[in-house]
């Protein structure tokens, strides 16, 4: 059985002519007919070439792999129990799920507090991020969770002021940071600023620390969607030339007269802007960590992607040695931007395998009495069940789950509903709940009471969408934890999940469901 859909996808706006009869190994139609207009990926590549490498239409979509991995988080089940309670008195009137504590504290001084064990682990310079930032920032801040401003935001800002190769002012980064800070409550949550090579050269981190008061700074080695630098499409010639001038790789060269003429006569309609790949070494890493601490960074994070095991070991070893405050490990398959489609499907270590290796390496450090940084894991998490499983599989080292596509989806839906309300065109599917945001969004009444009428009316519906989605995740996770009799996150353990297949058990080290509780069951049966 083929694990990949390799010649037709909604992501590339392609399909097979013989959809019912496709060669499993190649994805080609069983019969490729002379005269076909080329609806499949091969056919579209015959006339649009490299454009078909990327998911489409860019700017209004997020994308993730269609690959069917041999083992995934659905191959584990959550184990409940009928006995006792941890983190609360074992009393049926007291051990109720609304009292499950989901708060997380990380940082060298325990100074970063999250209401919930998740964060958005990197939304950068793409249109999908920029156009939904209000919802993402305000919703995250109101919920008391983390939000990471991803790479290239300064470099892509046409209003950024850059002098001698360093940023001295930027409208977009200021907007993103301030939106979050304006709605942060009771010290919960954190706004994080990430940087890649181009950001580092521009001095983005130093600017964020000195001018915007950002406390959490993240170094970036990569992400789960791709093993190259970030890329976007640019439809404007002047902007493409600006990015070229700022040091980005822009294809084709927007300063070439022949390219300019071809663009003007509409031979092509988009430029590609690419970031460079990093060259990791311990020496350069140590120097950068020291420089950022001297610049005033209070908390330092590292985010890495689905690279080979040696690179994962390197990431956790460096994070341990230089005592970082968080290491995020993003597994293969996801993406919020414009990662090459084949790369998104076919490179890197999948989630269960990567997170199992991470647990193994963290355990090794712990057994050798070395510092283990708080860990976050990413890789297609969307609901409370997979969040529970990821925290349990990585316990006690994994403290947070990183998400991106799901929160963006919630914010986009909330924003879209807001537009339908304003235009008095609420769809029938939603109209059954009401015609106003107070009627449609189930959290609106409680949030209005907390904030007051004036402040509540300022909240965009994109933020309501994200806040409401997070509220659902929180209640669902509390229910699952109560069922496992774990009333605070520190009590979650690897024994709270079981592998449903021998292969999943072998990879993860989680017990096969038929092997669980063997010694306990014998004791019980011999009562």
Tell me the β content.
Answer: 5-15%
N-to-C span: 49 Å
Global mean pLDDT: 94
CATH class of the domain at 73-230 and 275-409 reads: Alpha Beta
Indicate the overall shape. Answer: globular
Within the CATH hierarchy, at the fold level, what is the topology of the domain at 73-230 and 275-409?
A: TIM Barrel
Secondary structure: number of strands: 17
User: Helix- and strand-based class?
Assistant: alpha/beta
Helix content: 25-40%
Strand order of the largest sheet: 4-5-8-9-13-14-15-16
Count of alpha and pi helical runs: 22
Radius of gyration: 24 Å
How does the major sheet shape up? 8 strands, parallel, barrel
CATH superfamily of the domain at 73-230 and 275-409: Aldolase class I
Low-confidence stretches: none
Query: In the CATH classification, which architecture of the domain at 73-230 and 275-409 applies?
Result: Alpha-Beta Barrel
Blueprint (SSEs and pairs):
Layout: H1 41-48, E1 76-78, E2 104-106, E3 112-114, E4 118-123, H2 127-130, H3 133-143, E5 146-149, H4 153-156, E6 161-163, E7 166-169, H5 171-183, E8 190-195, H6 197-202, H7 204-212, E9 216-220, E10 231-234, H8 237-245, E11 249-251, H9 257-264, E12 271-274, H10 282-295, E13 299-304, H11 309-321, E14 326-330, H12 341-346, H13 351-367, E15 375-378, H14 384-393, E16 398-403, H15 405-422, H16 428-431, H17 437-440, H18 444-451, H19 453-457, H20 461-483, E17 497-499, H21 502-508, H22 518-525
């Amino acid at each position: 059985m083929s694990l990949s859909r390799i010649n037709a996808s909604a992501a590339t706006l392609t399909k097979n002519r013989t959809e019912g009869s496709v060669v499993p190994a190649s994805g080609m139609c069983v019969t490729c007919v002379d005269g076909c207009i080329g609806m499949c990926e091969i056919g579209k590549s015959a006339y649009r070439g490299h454009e078909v490498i990327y998911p489409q239409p860019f700017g209004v979509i997020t994308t993730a792999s269609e690959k069917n991995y041999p083992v995934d988080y659905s191959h584990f089940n959550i184990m409940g129990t009928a006995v006792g309670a941890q983190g609360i008195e074992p009393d049926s009137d007291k051990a109720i799920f609304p009292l499950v504590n989901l708060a997380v504290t990380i940082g060298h001084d325990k100074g970063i507090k999250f209401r919930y064990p998740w964060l958005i682990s990197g939304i950068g310079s793409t249109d999908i991020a920029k156009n939904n930032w209000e919802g993402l920032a305000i919703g995250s801040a109101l919920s008391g969770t983390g939000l990471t401003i991803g790479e290239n935001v300064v470099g892509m800002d046409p209003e950024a002021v850059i002098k001698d190769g360093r940023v001295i002012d930027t409208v977009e980064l200021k907007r993103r940071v301030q939106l979050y800070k304006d709605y942060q409550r009771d010290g919960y949550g954190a706004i994080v600023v990430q940087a890649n090579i181009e950001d580092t050269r521009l001095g983005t981190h130093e600017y964020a620390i000195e001018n915007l008061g950002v406390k959490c700074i993240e170094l970036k080695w990569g992400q789960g969607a791709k093993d190259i630098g970030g890329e976007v499409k640019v439809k404007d010639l002047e902007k493409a030339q600006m990015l070229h001038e700022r040091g980005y790789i822009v294809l084709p060269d927007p300063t070439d007269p022949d390219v300019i003429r071809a663009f003007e006569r509409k031979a092509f309609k988009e430029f590609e802007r690419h970031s460079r790949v990093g060259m990791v070494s311990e020496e350069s890493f140590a120097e950068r960590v020291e420089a950022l601490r001297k610049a005033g960074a209070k908390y330092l994070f590292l985010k890495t992607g689905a690279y080979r095991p040696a690179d994962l070991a390197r990431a956790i070893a460096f994070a341990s040695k230089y005592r970082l405050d968080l290491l995020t490990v993003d597994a293969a398959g996801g993406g919020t931007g414009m990662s090459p489609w084949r790369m998104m499907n076919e490179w890197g270590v999948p989630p269960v395998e990567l997170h199992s290796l991470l647990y193994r390496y963290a355990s090794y450090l712990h057994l050798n009495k070395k510092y283990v940084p708080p860990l976050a894991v990413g890789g297609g998490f969307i609901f409370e069940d997979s969040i529970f499983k990821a925290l349990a599989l990585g316990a006690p080292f994994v403290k947070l789950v990183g998400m991106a596509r799901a929160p963006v989806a919630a914010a986009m839906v909330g924003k879209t509903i807001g537009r339908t309300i304003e235009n008095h065109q609420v769809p029938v599917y939603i109209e059954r709940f009401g015609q106003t945001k107070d009627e449609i969004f189930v959290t609106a009444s409680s949030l209005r009471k907390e904030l007051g009428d004036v402040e509540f009316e300022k909240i965009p519906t994109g933020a309501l969408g994200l806040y409401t989605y997070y509220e659902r995740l929180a209640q669902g996770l509390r229910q699952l934890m109560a069922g496992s009799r774990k009333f605070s996150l520190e009590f979650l353990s690897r024994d709270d999940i079981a592998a449903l297949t021998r292969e999943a058990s072998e990879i993860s080290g989680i017990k096969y469901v038929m092997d669980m509780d063997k010694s306990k069951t014998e004791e019980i049966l011999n009562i």
